[in-house]
Write a structure and sequence with these properties.
Length: about 250
C-alpha cells in the first residue's frame, strides 16, 4: 500500500503565534490519519519542529538552495533545514519557478541536495492556463518529469505534487476526469522510467485549491495519494477535514 500524505504549504504566511495551529490540528486528526507535513516559512522551521513534537505531524521547508553551502546571501541549504528537525522540502513549486526563474534542471539539483541532507523532496510540476487551454498538459508534464526528477528517485526520498498553475489560489479545480488522466499519466511515466516496484510506491499529490468541500471528490482518483494544500492548510479547522477525507478515501 502506498502511503497517503497531506502536506500544507503555508507560503509566506505565519509567525510564531501561528504554531498553535499544530496543536489544534493534532487534536482534530482522525485516529487513522495519513502522514501530515506542514511547511511553514523558513524562520519558523525550528520552532515548528519543537511545537510538532508528540503530535505526529512532520515539518517541511518550502525550498532549499541547490548547493550544499557557500556564498549565497539570503538562501537556505538543505542541511540547515534538516538541522532544524524538518523531514521534507518542497522543490520546484510554480511560484518559485515563476518568480525565481527556476528551471527543471535547478529543481533536479535541489532534489538531489535535499536527499543528500536526508530530506524527502516534494517535487512540484504543473502546466500554465495557456498550456491547459491548448491541450498541452500531458506534454508539459512529461517534460517536467523528465527534467525535474533525478534518476535515483525512490518512494522514500520523493513525493510528486501535480499542481496545475491555473488552479493554485484561484478556486478553480480540474474535473475529476482531468485529475485522473494526469495522475494516471504520471504513474505511467514513472513506471517506464523507474520500473513498477518503485513507481507504484511513490506518493502522488494533487495541489491547487483543495478545500474541505472538494477534497473527497479529488481523493476518488486512484492515483491521487494525497494533497499539497496552500490556503486551506493555514487553519487547522480547514485542514483537518481535508485530512479526514484523505483518511476515508
Ligand atoms: P492553494 O495552493 O491550495 O492555495 O491553491 C496550493 C499550492 O500552491 O501548493
Amino acid at each position: 500500500m502506498r502511503r497517503k500524505l497531506a502536506a500544507g504549504n503555508w507560503k509566506m504566511n505565519g509567525t510564531a503565534a501561528s504554531l498553535t495551529e499544530l496543536e489544534a490540528l493534532k487534536s482534530s486528526l482522525p485516529t487513522n490519519a495519513p502522514d501530515v507535513v506542514i511547511c511553514p516559512p523558513a524562520p519558523l522551521l525550528y520552532r515548528a519542529t519543537q511545537a510538532a513534537k508528540e503530535t505526529g505531524i512532520q515539518i517541511g521547508a518550502q525550498d532549499c538552495h541547490m548547493q550544499e553551502s557557500g556564498a549565497f546571501t539570503g538562501d537556505v541549504s538543505a542541511s540547515m533545514i534538516a538541522d532544524t528537525g524538518a523531514t521534507h522540502v518542497i522543490v520546484g513549486h510554480s511560484e518559485r519557478r515563476d518568480a525565481h526563474e527556476e528551471r527543471d534542471r535547478d529543481v533536479r539539483k535541489k532534489a538531489k541536495t535535499a536527499w543528500a541532507a536526508g530530506l524527502t523532496a516534494i517535487i512540484c510540476i504543473g502546466e500554465t492556463l495557456e498550456d491547459h487551454e491548448a491541450n498541452n498538459t500531458l506534454d508539459i508534464i512529461a517534460g517536467q518529469l523528465a527534467g525535474s526528477l533525478p534518476s535515483a528517485v525512490t518512494p522514500t526520498n520523493t513525493v510528486i505534487a501535480y499542481e496545475p498553475i491555473w488552479a493554485i489560489g484561484t478556486g478553480k479545480v480540474p474535473t475529476l476526469e482531468q485529475i485522473v488522466e494526469v495522475h494516471d499519466f504520471i504513474r505511467e511515466r514513472l513506471t517506464s522510467r523507474y520500473g513498477t516496484e518503485i513507481a507504484d510506491m511513490i506518493p502522488l499529490l494533487y495541489g491547487g485549491s483543495v478545500k474541505p468541500d472538494n477534497a473527497a471528490t479529488i481523493f476518488k482518483a486512484a492515483n491521487v495519494d494525497g494533497a499539497l494544500v496552500g490556503g486551506a492548510s493555514l487553519k487547522a479547522a480547514d485542514f483537518a477535514p481535508i485530512i479526514t477525507a484523505l483518511s476515508q478515501s
